[in-house]
Structures are given as structure tokens and as C-alpha cells.
Amino acid sequence: MNIKIGSDVFERFKGYRRAVVLVKGADNRGEDDSLTAKLRSAEADVRERSDLADYKEIPRIASWREVFRSMGINPNKYPPSVANLIKRTGKGTDLPFVNKLVCIFNVISLRYMVPCGGDDLSVVTGDLRLDVASGTEDYVPLGKPDVLEHPDEGEIIYFDDGNRDVFCRAWCWKNGDRSKITETTTDVAINVEGMPPVSLEDLKAIGDELAEMVREHCGGDVSVHILDDEDDSLEI
Questions:
Q1: Largest CA distance in the chain
Q2: How is the beta sheet containing 116-120 ordered, strand by strand?
Q3: pLDDT number for residue 39
């Protein structure tokens, strides 16, 4: 099993990199008061930002909005995940504690304004690919297990090339239901998307911090990897 990023992605989006945090044997069960406190602290920091009213212009948000436009997607109607988190948080809405791993994703996204998400590796049948959609792949929206959709042709998607199941539409817009993280998840691939102005050094530091949070709160065997245009595949 591998994680692969298509060459078209790097050709179209110069400077893009992905940090992958691989976790094997995590304990994602139960609540964690100290982790919830980290989430509430990250939310408070967002709300105190002087540029919050113009969050769409924050460079790390604006870059993803431009990526969406280049895919022919209106980022106001279909916002990048991190932009949606910032908007919800800025309105005073506390994010729910879903489980420990999802809480960690949200803390990292809010602290560093980068898209961060993960997938349960137990459901993967082939290789995981970030690549251009043909439009024939299957997508089941998160929380809607009885709904079947298909991505648009040319849309960048993250999918399982074994059964053509889409794990995330529009790069980092909305996760699929089949690979969602639950309390019983033990093996997971966590992705941190690094689009300029996020530097390689920034991305490595974020990946390392995320990995340490997973070790502290979930345990397991945790490793950090960087994918870029020179190293576009990772065996998992």
C-alpha cells in the first residue's frame, strides 16, 4: 500500500508539499480533557487575531482559495476545510470533540491555518492517490452513508485507486464517510497540506508537532514523512 501524488498536481501547483504522519496502533477511545483544553486555546487564539474579519485574505487561507478557483470551484460556496474552520471559530462556535485524533487535526489546523485530516487505513483496498478525477469515482459524503456522488472531471481528489472510493473531494474541501476516523480507528494516515507560503521548514515543524501530540494522547507507532515533486510516493 502506498500514498502517491500525481505529477499533474506538482506541475500545476508549484511549491506544494504534503506532510504525512503515519500512525499504527493508536488508542483513539474516550475523551481527553487536556486535549479539549488545547482545542479551546487554539480557538481563543483565532478569535483574538486582529485580521480575523478579513480571514479570507490571510495568506495561508488566500492561497487555498486561489487553488480552488484554479480548479473551477467557487471557494465561497465550497470553502477549503481550513477556511471553514476559521470562519466557524471566528463566529464563536466551539468545535465539538469528536474523538482524540479528529481533535488533534482541528488543533493543528487552527494553530497553523493549514488543511489537516486523516483516513482510517483499515478500509483501504489499493493505493491512496492525490490526483485529477476522471469523474467516475464514487464519493459518499461524511455523515451521509446512503448518498452516492461523483466528483467533477478535472477536480483534484484524494482517493483509493483499488475501489475508486473518494476520501476527500476538491483536494481539501470535504471528507468522505467510508474512511472517517472513529473511536475504533487504530491505523491512520494524517495529511498536512503545505501550499506556499508554507515553507518546507514550516511543514516539517507542523508535522513533528502533530506527531508528538498523537504520541502523547493516542500512543502507537508514529512517523513523519514529506512528499514533494522529488519524492512523490510513500509506502505505508
A1: 46
A2: 116-120, 188-194, 17-24, 221-227
A3: 99
| pLDDT of the residue at 90 | 96
Cβ 16 vs Cβ 115: under 8 Å: no
| Domains of the chain: total | 1
CA 102 from centroid of its chain's CA atoms: 10
Angle made by CA atoms 123, 128, 132, in degrees to the nearest 5 = 130
- Provide the pLDDT for residue 15: 97
What's residue 115's pLDDT? Answer: 99
Domain CATH for 73: 3.50.40.10
| Tally of CB atoms within 10 A around 150 | 16
Give the residues of the chain that fall short of pLDDT 50. none
Cell of 201: 521548514
What burial letters (b/e) apply to 197-210, b meaning 16+ CB within 10 Å? Answer: ebeeebbbebbebb
Q: State CA 151 to chain mean position distance.
A: 18
E strand segments, the chain = 2-5, 17-24, 116-120, 128-132, 156-160, 165-169, 174-175, 188-194, 221-227, 233-235
Question: Can you give the residue range of the structural domain that contains 77?
Answer: 2-235
Give the length of the chain: 236
Report H helices in 71-112: 81-90, 100-112
* pLDDT for position 206: 99
